[in-house]
Write a structure and sequence with these properties.
The chain is mostly helical. It has helices at residues 2-22, 27-39, 72-77, 113-118, 123-134, 140-145, 151-162, 174-192, 196-213, 230-238, 242-247; strands at residues 41-43, 53-54, 63-64, 92-95, 98-100, 103-105, 108-111. 48% of the residues lie in helices and 8% in strands. The strands form 3 sheets. Strands 1-7-4 form a 3-stranded mixed sheet. It has a two-stranded antiparallel ribbon with strand order 2-3. It has a two-stranded antiparallel sheet with strand order 5-6. Strand 5 (98-100) and strand 6 (103-105) form a beta hairpin. The chain is globular and about 70 Å long. Mean pLDDT is 82; it is low at 215-224.
Length: 266
């Protein structure tokens, strides 16, 4: 499964890099983002390396040395529930590059083990989640924190998503909405390579991950965790994406939602 997952991830990253190449960025920002993507990895849960353990007098077992861990909050919180239910949640998140003293951890995508199991059932949902999380490097908040401030570059697409005839995005939702948009672009490319008879089911498989992550709610904007409402994500961002629509031989522009696009380099 991990081999298959890494193969899908490599392809998703390559398509994310193509978005970076298309976007109206200066040369330094494009170079920095390309380097960041080359280092981006999936984080798999595993026993910490031996050097992260210490001895405590009077205690027979080795103990994790929190002071030597670059991101102890993440490394420990998954074990707070003695039943390990956290591992069963259909969730994933992007973790920024962190450092603590001499220890440095590159940016990574943390996939809950649920999705590794789910890969056998629906690889398009898996790929869609990876594409969304990888795209966080392009988002306004994450890019400003990592030294490649893209807020000005992304302003046209974010202003488009705020429109009443788009998803009525709120400012707190900009990173998640932009990640959805980029994921739709990536998945459109992957799905376009399938036989036409398989494309509709692949699109359905892709958006299934959104339903898993957050069950559909009434069409009120949902600010919980910064995500737009699930139905707006599906209909307005994925359904309104012209690349994905063309893949299904639909007319390029949705009649329900405004079509928003990447600020392309000239």
């Amino acid at each position: 499964r991990k081999t298959k997952a890494e193969k899908i991830f490599a392809r998703v990253k390559s398509e994310n890099l193509k978005i970076v190449e298309r976007t109206a960025l200066n040369d330094q920002a494009r170079k920095d983002l390309s380097e960041s993507y080359s280092k981006l990895k999936i984080a798999w849960f595993a026993k910490p390396q031996d050097s992260l353990y210490k001895k405590i007098e009077g205690f027979n077992l080795d103990v994790l040395d929190e002071a030597n861990m670059a991101n102890p909050d993440f490394d420990f919180k998954v074990f707070f529930d003695s039943n390990l239910k956290y591992f069963l949640k259909p969730n994933a998140f992007f973790a920024l590059e962190t450092s603590q003293g001499k220890i440095k951890k590159d940016a990574q995508i943390v996939m809950m083990p649920f999705f590794l199991e789910y890969l056998d059932i629906n690889e398009f949902a898996f790929a869609g989640v990876l594409a969304h999380e990888a795209a966080h490097q392009l988002g306004p908040r994450v890019s400003s924190m990592s030294g490649q401030d893209l807020r000005e570059v992304q302003k046209p697409i974010l202003q488009c998503l705020e429109k009443p005839d788009s998803i009525r995005m709120l400012p707190a939702q900009s990173d998640e909405a932009l990640a959805d948009f980029a994921a739709a672009e990536v998945m459109a490319k992957l799905i376009s390579e399938l036989p036409e008879s398989n494309r509709l089911s692949a699109v359905a498989g892709t958006i299934e991950s959104l339903c898993l992550l957050d069950s559909a709610k009434p069409i009120d904007i949902d600010v919980h965790h910064g995500h737009p409402n699930t139905m707006l994500r599906i209909g307005g961002i994925f359904g309104g994406n012209s690349s994905l629509r063309k893949t299904l031989n639909c007319q390029a522009d949705s009649t329900t939602y405004r079509t928003c696009g990447i600020p392309e380099k000239k």
